[in-house]
Amino acid sequence: EPTVRTELMEQIPPIAIFLQESRPKFPTAFFEYLMPIVVRYLTDVNNQVRKAGQEALLILLEHDLIAQSDIENKVCPILLDLSAPDSDDEYKVEAVNIICKMASMLSRTTVEHMLLPRFCELCSDGKLFQVRKICAANFGDICNAVGQEATERLLIPKFFELCSDSVWGMRKACAECFMAVSYTTSPEVRRSKLSPLFISLISDTCRWVRQAAFQSLGPFISTFANPSSAGLYIREDGTLSIRPSTQDVNSNSCQPSNNITFMSSSTNAT
């Protein structure tokens, strides 16, 4: 009964947390009994069961409850199978969504070697625009997960493709995450490649794309500033913030704070 499997999956994270706290008494219980259930339910025939399994997986990763070996040998292979070109459309959309969400919770090496090649393929998926839309909406997070070298070598060409996609929602999503992508690149790439690309978005034929680009203009310009002198920094939640210098704080101690926060990306691309 699907409702039973769904309810069971919702109980996995609290049980796993309990086992972690009692590890001396249950050293291998999670890996031997619970982890195989989580992996199996990622491919369940019922949509609600799969959704519960995906949510459980993210909670387990967030609490660092899954061993690196299990991530690489059990979780990633399943997601790669589900996101393969010949996979069922519904499974593929779910797989790319979970790949994007878990990228920030994994090591850079794991993301770059196991998930990044598939993500690049999905950015060019000509069959499902929903897949490209998810990739575009989460592009900044993937760039942040793999770092500058992989971003410039592999992701920037895909970003150019998405920025010129025939579906305006894709271009809008790219405009919304432009700052996060720019922040991950070198000053030269920002100047020579991303600036002309941004101009194309701000001149787009669709007013929704232009509006999103104008809203990202300030955050994009801020990535050209010197972080040491401008006080720019990226928070853990993915937002770019400007911290006043000590001199400014001392000279304006009676004035309200002028901190400005820019969202690095949008959770949804319309």
TrEMBL record:
InterPro entries with a match to the protein in the record: ARM-like, ARM-type_fold, HEAT, HEAT_type_2, PP2A_Regulatory_Subunit_A
Gene Ontology CC, one term: cytoplasm
Species: Cepphus grylle (Black guillemot)
Name of the encoding gene: Ppp4r1_2
Keyword Cell cycle: no
Highest taxon, organism lineage: Eukaryota
GO molecular function: protein phosphatase regulator activity
Record region (Disordered): 245-270
Repeat keyword on record: yes
Name assigned to this protein: PP4R1 phosphatase
PANTHER family: SERINE/THREONINE-PROTEIN PHOSPHATASE PP2A 65 KDA REGULATORY SUBUNIT, WW-BINDING DOMAIN-CONTAINING PROTEIN-RELATED
Keywords: Repeat
HEAT repeats, residue ranges: 115-154
